[in-house]
């Protein structure tokens, strides 16, 4: 498998270069001529390196002059390859620095603490694998915490950190986030593998934008599964695109690896499959219709008719498929309502479904094994000639009807060898079994849960609608941070629609489809925005590419012109050398000016984007009231509380972590992670603690306990404790929420919404308290956004927080 793409091109040309209509040739740009960066056009033709290797091998017996010429050509290509590697390498180094620098400084978010704690539990449990296998009481997949990949991988990071001697026995806030930072950096480099399809300049620009994207940088430093899923989704896209281009098993396995790991990471993979599957089916419908001529079969060949049936079939697919999708969404909504209303009945039904699935799976495995055995025996005993004859027989059927160039996706499907199907299914099944059964310690439960528990939990949560965000949430959040991505992403969408290829249309469909699906889904959170931002950055690279190419071509030709003039002056004098001065045509200067202006706009938009990335990642990383991209973040007060506890433990127990601590139920997360080295922690204080706990030295209480009079009870005038209140979590103002519904004769209101505001437009214009009768004021909105961009002045209120209290027994020498 050649990951660099240097190989002789197959009959099925590039996925992106295949015409989008079987009977209409697309412009030269779409056919790939535009996809070569002009800045190093002669030196960076690395896609033909494999051909040059073959030519060099054949030329070994030729004359010394030919061999010298080939060697010189190879040296030129090699320099171009090195330049390309350096360009990507610089971006990857920058991306890695942005993601790994001071990685453990920010306190763990509530969700991060869950993932960190249970990964630590899993590492400790697997040290006694035999016990987990025998009793099945160790970690098992729970869709509440999402897929098992995260916990296995983080446990592995802990173990490796222990082996190399990382402080804190390899477990700290830095090692918790190492996996996210690593996969976030890998994601930045993946467009390299699509550079022939996207265009070399576009792929590199996309890499740059992914490297500095505020949302992608921040959530690459956040121990949550979304950045893993984003990386695996792009890996899936890379594998599928390259497999259609080359038909190599290795690329198919790369795609299946991405799909399998994504499925084992998060249940939102179902949404990815919906987007990929619906687009792929649409491409197949188009390719089928492209073989049936339409205009030529009509008398007079009217020009208003398309040349083939492809557009009409695609229109029918969109109408029928869209109708079915709406029916599916309605059915899912009703099913979610039923589950919520009949929870016990639904639970029992799903439990029985899991049992039946576990009973059927072994028989399916046996059937698949028999099919594979028959195929292998046929190839072993019938011989190569018979196999080739069978392939020719196959091509006389459906496969012979397919045109490789006009129908590359369809050709890939109908000519895909059985062995490819087998190894793809085998790889996915291995990933599924290893991770969902937790290294085979929970085989029965893992298989049933892995197939049904995720989708069942997702349906349950649709009525919970965690966060309660409005449908326009991402339309507000993403433009606040991703200025260059949004502007040139829209430009890229227009370009992809005007000059389409299958890959370009896929990027548009992927971005818009994710925006629609994630806006439709009940739970909307800032970390989910990266699934929209990812394809948006690829589109932005395509949007910037034409202007950057013109500028690079101008620079290249200017450099050549200068060299030619210098040579001419040396040869015939300065007067003759003036002939080479006008190398850029007069008629092309307007295009150059436009391109330079576009690049300058891109640079100007990159400035606030990078500034936002810096602010949210390094300045206000734990300061949620100033950042919409941060959702209910743990404050640095947690570090202050832990410093007090460590100081008291040193005074009383010599720093051996033996200090007894009471932890109320509403303060469990993230404190249980920070107290992981203290074995004498009493959870659910005071009800869950023994009677002797009334004399416990330290108590940590959450906001609900504080509201119920915890201070008066334990630290009142006759209390035994000193009391101090801190902020456990803080959050961004939510004045952009829809205003409360006011019932009238024309409007009926449902149940009251959990969160209300003044609406996005008034909020941007006036904050949380617009004057009576106010309307959207674009000037005021622009001023508020500008002040937030550069000074982080809040758009609305910034006082939202959840308190916690530290209580220390009097007379111990440490105050809370």
TrEMBL record:
GO MF terms, alphabetically ordered: mannosyltransferase activity
InterPro entries in alphabetical order: ArnT-like_N (IPR003342), CHP03663 (IPR019962)
Cellular component per GO, a single term: membrane
Extent of Basic and acidic residues compositional bias: 1-12
Boundaries of every ArnT-like N-terminal domain copy: 170-298
Membrane-crossing residue ranges in chain numbering: 82-101, 176-194, 201-221, 227-244, 249-264, 270-288, 309-332, 360-377, 421-440, 471-498, 505-522, 528-552, 592-610
Species this chain originates from: Thermogemmatispora argillosa
UniProt-listed PANTHER family: GLYCOSYL TRANSFERASE FAMILY 39_83 DOMAIN-CONTAINING PROTEIN, GLYCOSYL TRANSFERASE, FAMILY 39
Name this polypeptide is given: ArnT-like N-terminal domain-containing protein
Location in or out of the cell: Endomembrane system
Highest rank taxon of the organism: Bacteria
Pfam annotation, one family: PMT
Membrane topology: Multi-pass membrane protein
GO aspect biological process, one term: protein O-linked glycosylation
Positions with biased composition (Polar residues): 33-44
Keywords: Glycosyltransferase, Membrane, Transferase, Transmembrane, Transmembrane helix
